[in-house]
DNA sequence: TTAACAATTAAACATTTATTTAATTGTTTA
DNA sequence: TAAACAATTAAATAAATGTTTAATTGTTAA
């Protein structure tokens, strides 16, 4: 084995040290988790997993200003977690229907042990 | 229905607006995601999902200083994602064997599309 | 009991980020 | 076209966070 740690102690690290993904690889995952680190943003994401809503309504539910909501929506969208759709004057947002979103939704429900109001199969 | 959003547009939000978990509830989940938002910390977590390692070795692999590693380990531990075990002079860390850790590990593997070196059943 | 090593803690600094207020863009209807 | 409404963007501020250097605690071996 060509790679060796300072303290070789019979563990397995030397067996896969050269298979560890790079900093950049983990940066991609971290970018997703980063969007869910803020309680307000996470709550918005959860809501959009269960309903399609416009910015004003989200602000009303969240008791937040319009620009603050817009800020969070932009971040969630940049991570491909939600999509937007303008209908007249309003812009409607909802969660993307992707495996990742479903997985993240499941994690949320598990951690919260929420009874998902419509059952997980109703995620948007 | 007693609760109504500013723009009632025939969506489902009014049906579960009073079932939306609180800010504090989402704070609990966010606290977990928060620990995985930093690429370095996430990478450390991934390593500890596959091997039990001491602080010095983690620093060697990560090319990070000892205090920096210690800082990240403390945060991961405070979120119950890793455990520590002192053996002589060294303190060994590894991922907790909990459903949440397995779930987060799966998310990471899926996003990265890594071939888990030992298969997911070998997670520590 | 010293000396050496491993790990943590503390203080300081630089960077990032969430929110507010104000201004701007986009869309509808009067 | 003008007025009203919805949403976004910009600038500014306050708060949180990662890393470094230095000091401290804990453990082992000489």
What is the compact description of this entry?
Chain A is 51% helix and 11% strand.
Question: Any descriptors?
Answer:
6 helices; Arc Repressor Mutant, subunit A; mainly alpha; DNA-binding; 124 residues; 11% strand; three-stranded antiparallel beta sheet; homodimer
How would you describe what is shown here?
- 2 copies of one chain form a homodimer.
- Chain A has 124 residues and is mainly α.
- The first copy, chain A, has one domain (22-112): Arc Repressor Mutant, subunit A (Orthogonal Bundle), CATH 1.10.10.10.
- Helices cover 51% and strands 11% of the residues of chain A.
- Chain A has 6 helices and 3 strands, in the order αααβααββα.
- Chain A has helices at 13-16, 23-34, 39-50, 55-62, 66-78, 99-112, and strands spanning 53-54, 82-87, 90-95.
- Chain A has a 3-stranded antiparallel beta sheet with strand order 1-3-2.
- The N and C termini of chain A lie far apart (49 Å).
- The model of chain A is unreliable at 114-123 (pLDDT under 50).
- Chain A binds a DNA duplex (30 and 30 nucleotides) through residues 7, 38, 40-41, 54-56, 64-74, 86, 88-91.
